[in-house]
Amino acid sequence: MDALYVFITTSLPKAGAQVSGLPLTLNLLLTAYVILRQPNRTLLMIQRFRGLTVAYGTLFIFGVLSILMALAQGMEAYTLSQMIIVVGSPLVGVAATRMSSRQFSRIIICSMFIVNLYGIIQFAIGIENCAVAGITYTLGQDFTDKAIGFHADGTVEKIPSTYQSGSSLGIFNVLGVSFLLSNYQDSSIWKYMRYVALGLGLVGVMLSGSRSIQIPFILLLIIFLIQFVKQLPPRKRSMTLGVGGIALAIGAVCLCAQQTIVDRFFDRLVNQTLADKTASGRTEQWSQSFEVISQMNGWQLLRQIMFGQNPHTDVVGEGLPKFFFMFGIVSTMAFYGGLLYIIRCCWQCRRSRTVALGILCVFCAFCVDRSFNYPPNIMNVSLFAAAVLKNHSFTNSSEQRLRNTAIKSLIND
């Protein structure tokens, strides 16, 4: 069941139907099962790292209080579901801890194929022409209502693939690429599939059209490559660099042949970014919202700071400010602090440093847009982090036990 959950979450996260205005997807149903299947193991996963225990415990306590207060004051069901997703999603990493590393990595490779090949088909023939209701998107929802930049001619700025969101597609691909850079396969077929999946992931990042994830990924790309080379055995570095250079050259030729992808990527990332000084209206939203907060009385201000906004208060925004508006300062510090702690833990293990960089890119995206509100973005972060840290945490524990045993022996002697 864990394998099915990881596959659905990473490849078909929107498969399901909308019921009473709320999306009821297979991903969400399986999320509840995965978390509640072994509650003790779920809690143990969080308790392995002291900093994560503190961060998530704080987020859970203050997040639940924010949810209860918002519910009592008439919060809309859709917004309420988003808050529950934010608080509960970090726990799904337990699914990755119950799977073998080989099984997890092969599922990710398959998901990279499915998601990005479907995204390329969407780009080639149009989103609505290849949509399958209830599988590639939630039955009862409409693509035109999604923030993917529909134009009058039917084209879009963001290719959503099976994620119904270009931002979510970009986040998955950055995490997938960062994971596969540090992952090795023991089968020749899966080795080649891993290389192709990496290439498809890079194309998927370009097609996603999400500048919030593209910009940090581009800025950190050199560091990604350096850390990838460093983790290789010395005898394999020259061969890998040679093969990688050839693969990049072939990829560049293919992209140049399909010049439209490159043109759209450059126009979206450079031209539109430089032309829009308000960051898609974000700076105006933030200034207006903080102006509303400055006019609150003592109790209203205390409620906003500690537990987030009253559901009837006109406070909007994106990214980190939006998280603060929803949950308050304590939950905001716990959420973003927890992400930084996970990045630090991944960086301490040499083989997972590329994953640390991938999560850092997602951290930047969460700071400037609302992608944390929508499944499976936080879920994917939790799954990839748990997959690379599960052995690292046990190794640390074993080393500590050996140290303690050695110290006791010296004392006894």
TrEMBL record:
Coiled coil, from the record: none
Main location: membrane
Membrane topology listed for this record: Multi-pass membrane protein
Transmembrane intervals: 15-36, 48-71, 77-95, 163-182, 189-207, 213-229, 241-261, 323-343
Domain O-antigen ligase-related intervals: 197-295
Source species, domain of life: Bacteria
Keywords: Membrane, Transmembrane, Transmembrane helix
GO cellular component annotations of the record: membrane
Pfam families, per database record: Wzy_C
Cellular localization per UniProt: Membrane
Keyword Transmembrane helix included in the entry's annotation: yes
Protein name: FhiA protein
